[in-house]
Design a protein that fits this description.
Helices cover about 45% and strands about 10% of the residues. It is α+β, with helices and mostly antiparallel strands and about 170 residues long. It has 2 domains: about 60 residues; about 80 residues, 3-Layer(aba) Sandwich (Glutaredoxin), CATH 3.40.30.10. It has a 4-stranded mixed sheet, covered by helices on one side. A hairpin with a 2-residue loop joins strand 3 and strand 4. The N terminus is likely disordered. The structure holds FE2/S2 (inorganic) cluster.
């Protein structure tokens, strides 16, 4: 049975072709779902419902199982992310050194709550657990790059830096 769940634009078709290739590479492997979801998200940027349904059908597993995995792991997102992803560590060492205030300052300055993306699509704000850089607490990453020993006044500077690309 072929999947009727996706659109017909060239870009959409390309998206599903990419997923086909990812699934092909994991065919017959036990526990293929998580690596397939992970790679699909890397390529597409997020995991919308039609993509989840397509993966479920192709892997021959219930859609409810795919939904369950996607909603369980914070690593997976069902919404498109911003150009830059800011992830503030709320692990114990960072929290004790004020990362909660840093996060609040980002929320205030960007005008979004944790998990949200700015209207211009520039930034997604996230919180995460220990990044393994506690010596630099409080820590955050922007697009995976670590910034440490932060104070609230660094927030505006970081936003500016990524906004202007300098
Ligand atoms: S608690 Fe933040 S890096 Fe470890």
């Amino acid at each position: 049975m072929s999947c009727q769940c996706h659109g017909s634009t060239g870009e959409e078709n390309e998206k599903f072709k990419v997923i086909d290739r990812i699934i092909e590479a994991h065919k017959g492997q036990e526990g293929a779902l998580i690596p397939v979801l992970h790679q699909a998200q890397e390529v597409i940027g997020y995991l919308p419902e039609d993509v989840q349904a397509y993966i479920a059908e192709k892997l021959g597993i219930p859609l409810s199982e795919v939904y369950g995995v996607v909603s369980f792991y914070t690593l997976f997102s069902t919404e498109p992310k911003g150009k830059h992803v800011i992830s503030v560590c709320l692990g114990t060492a960072c929290y004790v050194k004020g990362s909660g205030n840093i996060l609040a300052e980002f929320e205030k300055t960007l005008g979004v709550k944790v998990g949200g993306t700015t209207k211009d699509g520039m930034f997604t704000l996230e919180a995460c657990r220990c990044l393994g850089a506690c010596g630099l607490a409080p820590v955050l990453t922007v697009d995976g790059d670590v910034h440490g020993r932060l104070v609230t006044k660094d927030v505006a500077e970081i936003i500016n830096k990524y906004k202007t690309g300098n």
